[in-house]
Amino acid sequence: MLDIKRIRENPDIIKAAMKSRNMDLDGVIDELIAVDLKRRETGAIVDGIKAEQNQASKDIPRVKKEGGDVSAVMARMKELADKAKALGAQESELEQRQQELLYQIPNAPHGSVPTGTDESQNVEVRRVGEPQSFPFEPLPHWEIGRNLNILDPETAAKVTGARFHFYRGLGARLERAIINFYLDTHTSNGYTEILPPFVANRASMTATGQLPKFEEDAFKLSEGEYFLIPTAEVPVTNMHRDEIIDGGRLPLCYAAYSACFRAEAGSAGRDTRGLIRQHQFNKVELVKFASPETSYDELEKLTGDAERVLKALGLPYRVVCLCSGDMGFSSAKTYDIEVWMPSYNRYLEISSCSNFEDFQARRGKIRYRAKEGDKPALVHTLNGSGVAIGRTVAAIIENYQNGDGSVTVPEALRPYMGCDRITI
């Protein structure tokens, strides 16, 4: 969440930042400032009462020693205690309301983020590779997968429901091969491999920004206190919740495989066929903890690390900088990597790399100490898909399809697959 001091001192700037995100939060910000002022005023009164209580506590033994009557002092002590209790309850209510309001406000876009209302105003940064021209009519990956008997959504629909898949034979091996290839590539590039829990508690989901705003998109367990994770970002970022990291260890770089679970509550009718928008999918996530001074350099490196695996697979892609109106709730700046999909005849997101600055760290109380004796400061958190596995399978099937219905296995995956072609 944003720093209340930043909002208090720059309300017009924050309001303008929210409008650049297509959000009119003037009322929320005005209420927040009013609640914050009332909370601070109430806190000051409580502090004054405590000071008076402390003085009275010192006066009682002195008055007794002098043989005086302490009944008036005792009566005043009770009056102060009752008043402090009532004001303390009021202060707690104001703190709770302040937190609720802060949770409604997304991150403010970084100054380098292009202003825009939707994805049409995202800015292309670069393209890598050229989409090939097929000497035949290319098929979508779901048809190729069905013809090769490697993708089976029909059985998954019977067993579970829509937007789930069974992978069969070389389809299952291809998914596993990509996971291993991605992890091997990233760990050889300085990332520490993590295999996290696939379930997170409410505090963890709140720290990374999924809750409370996006609760309807999450799969809840145990009456909503536990959630199937939407991304490994959640458990990996929360590894350091409520901790102070030694600044000499920064940046911390983690690569984590996980299954991911999303209800996709707001995406009815979108990408209902194939592997693009599933309720359950696999992903390798890259997570970084960096100092504020270096976090934007780390964002560029993180994006390059996600690109590295797509280059190795020979998949055409482009990188776009998201405009203010298309960014995620917690992000200050995001690059999307979009892979070319012949069946869509366009580029499709396969990775999203973001710098959250201290937005998540403030929620999760994740701090670092630059050097011994320094006051702890909030760390900057970053994450990016390194990359989505199901979408990689779809991109390989479509970009490496052959006229005879087979799919060529990219050279980088052949040691993991044990074959160079997927055939009927």
Major pleated sheet: 8 strands, mixed
Which structural class is indicated by helix and strand composition? alpha+beta
Compute the number of helices: 13
> What is the distance, rounded to the nearest whole angstrom, between the alpha carbons of the first and last residues?
52 Å
State the helicity in percent bands.
40-55%
Strand line-up in the sheet with most strands = 1-11-12-13-16-10-9-4
Share in β-strands: 15-25%
Query: What's the Cα radius of gyration?
Result: 27 Å
Structure description:
The chain is α+β, with helices and mostly antiparallel strands. It has 13 helices and 18 strands. It has helices at residues 4-9, 11-20, 26-65, 71-103, 141-147, 153-159, 170-187, 202-207, 233-237, 295-313, 359-364, 389-399, 414-417; strands at 123-128, 151-152, 166-167, 192-194, 199-201, 219-221, 226-228, 244-246, 252-261, 280-290, 317-321, 333-341, 346-355, 367-369, 377-378, 380-388, 407-408, 421-422. The strands form 5 sheets. The chain has an 8-stranded mixed β-sheet. Strands 5-7-6 form a 3-stranded antiparallel β-sheet. The chain has a 3-stranded mixed β-sheet with strand order 8-14-15, with no helix packed on it. The longest helix has 40 residues, at 26-65. The protein starts with a helix and ends with a strand. The relative contact order is 0.14. The mean pLDDT is 95.
